[in-house]
Amino acid sequence: MKHLVKKANRYYIHWNIPKDVRHLFDGLAIYSRSLKTDNLGQAIMRRDQLLAELEGVVRKARVNPERQQFLALVKEIRKAAEEPPIEQDEENIEEAWNAELQFAIEKGDTVRADAIRAAMGGKDAEGIEAKYGITLMEATKLYTETTEESLDPSTLSRLNLAPVSFASFLKLKDIHLADIDKRDVIAWVMECAKDKAPRTVKAYATCLSKVWDWAYRSKEVSGENPFKDLDIRLTSSGTKRTAFTVEQVAALLEGAGPAMYSLMKFALVTGCRLGELVTITAEDFHETDGVHYFTIKDGKTANAARNVPLPVALWEELKAVVESELWTRTETRTRPSSAQYWSVMFQKHKDAVLGDKCSAVFHSFRKMAATGYQRAQVFEGIAAGILGHSRKGLTLSYGLYATGFELQQQLEAVETMLASDYMSQFLKLFNK
Predict the structure, then answer these.
(1) For a 10 Å CB count at each end of the chain, is N or C smaller?
(2) In 3D, which of 311, 290, 316, 320 has the Cα closest to residue 414?
(3) According to the model, what pLDDT value does residue 2 have?
(4) Helices vs strands, H then E, count in the chain
(5) Distance between terminal CA atoms of the chain?
(6) What pTM did the predictor assign?
């Protein structure tokens, strides 16, 4: 049995500790502990519970190694300080730790120096501990990894976007949970409501509230949840996400880098969401019976998984962009995801070019694609399939989705939409 050893009529868990986290286990290579039972069924259950806890420790350590090292050192130092050798008096103990502190400083071991200061309760102890507190991005990542199997795609999407939106509002890359002020949360919610539906804004706040509650239960933060009980009534401002005008698209293209330029182009041409575009891989491109298409494996909703046909020239252009990793290069990987990175970058670009009063957002390109299908009088059932919208309530003509016909009919719909007067006025800008 994996991780189980029987000794002296008792089962023990026997777990190899990863090298990078052994400092959290007093340098041990093997974690061995009695499960206090000779019953195999009980032993398996207790082993699984312990493994879940141990994997949680490893997960936390790998999100912020310095923080976990600091916490382990503080625990170790406090324990040593509570159990000094009998012959040492309080003055000698303090001198010994001061010497340890000086040695850590000279060695350049900042984490150990901070841990000694914090553990010995100096005047800066509280500030030092706050420095190593868990951040919003770290907590969100850990919460998502812990609960991912039970989360639906829309919640996962909001967990990706909400913390970035909040940090961006504060003009920060990240923020410690302990430093989050409820007044800032309320101001952020009110700002979000200017260009997002009330339901979306409330969902963002709810997601971050769950992250906070998880961190509280995990003893990572204390105090009141700043995302809970906001007591704000959000109503539609009457300003809907509008489409970009021809003039606005022309202005956006001026000064846009290759990555941003191609993102706008293929958002308009395909109607894909930003998060869908930046997660396409080279393996998602296919050709069947002469029809070239790419596959969206999953996404924001249950209907998001779909095939999107394109004319050969556009298909090859998009494939080249994806294979070059233009949207997923190193600079985007410093963020929780490429989608969040480009969402922030587009907003900055749009505000710089059009000003912050423009109510159109990146999602507007998807709205414009839908408008293109509508203006070209493409049957709604076909457009819904291409865009990943629900087909519920639609009366589909027989044969429309029969095997072998869907891709060809969808491609014809795409070509009709791209050739429409509405879409042509925008595509001319990209083809200059």
Answers:
(1) C
(2) 311
(3) 83
(4) 19, 6
(5) 66
(6) 0.52
